[in-house]
Structure formats: structure tokens, C-alpha cells
Design a protein that fits this description.
Elements (H helix, E strand, L loop, with lengths): L1 H40 L6 H30 L5 H29 L7
């Protein structure tokens, strides 16, 4: 019974990993397409606001992906409560949270259009 539960948790964590990667890939592809379209539309000038919007949207995809990875790490740790795995979980969560915080701040700044137009 306990072995089946650990196996289920392992499947769930693998699914969350895949979901995180799919979100990141879909977001990246969408933003590359938007970037290419904006470049081809008017090749003579670079529209900084368009790039800011693209960066903001990509940041949202990255944040969502990081949230799934953090959830996966927390769930995965349930199966291995050793001191090493708890330490590894703590480090991963801190790193991903710090990255998420700064990306979130950048997204807020871009959304408020506080960037200076060049």
C-alpha cells in the first residue's frame, strides 16, 4: 500500500515536471513568434515597448513554470525525508523563489511602463 502511494507521488512529480517544461516551451515559442512578427513588421525601427511587452509575457510563463517546479519539489520531498533531501529542497525553493521574486518585480515594472523609451 505504502509502495503504491510512493509510486503515485513519483508519477505526480514527473507530471508536474512535464507541465512546467511544456508551459516554458509554449511561452517561449509564442514569444519568439511575437518577436519575429514585430521585427518583420517594421524592420527599419525597433519598438522598445513591444519588446517590453514580450519580456513581460515571457516572465509570466517563467513564473508559472517555476511555481509548478516548486510544487513538484515539495511533493517529491514527502517520499524522501532525509536531512539531505530537506536541505536540497530548501535551497531549491529559496533559489526559485528569489528568481521568481525578481522576475515578478520586473514584470510589474514593465506593466507600469516605467521603462524609458529610447
Amino acid at each position: 500500500m505504502l509502495n503504491n502511494m510512493y509510486q503515485l507521488i513519483e508519477y505526480i512529480t514527473k507530471a508536474l515536471d512535464i507541465i512546467a517544461v511544456v508551459i516554458l516551451v509554449i511561452g517561449s515559442i509564442k514569444m519568439v513568434i511575437k518577436y519575429v512578427i514585430s521585427e518583420v513588421k517594421d524592420i527599419s525601427k525597433t519598438d522598445i515597448k513591444t519588446f517590453q511587452v514580450i519580456r513581460c509575457e515571457l516572465g509570466v510563463y517563467i513564473l508559472l513554470s517555476l511555481d509548478f517546479l516548486i510544487a513538484k519539489d515539495i511533493i517529491h520531498t514527502v517520499t524522501d525525508l532525509s536531512q539531505d533531501s530537506l536541505l536540497e529542497l530548501g535551497v531549491l525553493i529559496v533559489l526559485r523563489t528569489v528568481i521568481g521574486y525578481f522576475i515578478g518585480k520586473e514584470v510589474e515594472v514593465i506593466e507600469k511602463e516605467e521603462y524609458i523609451d529610447i
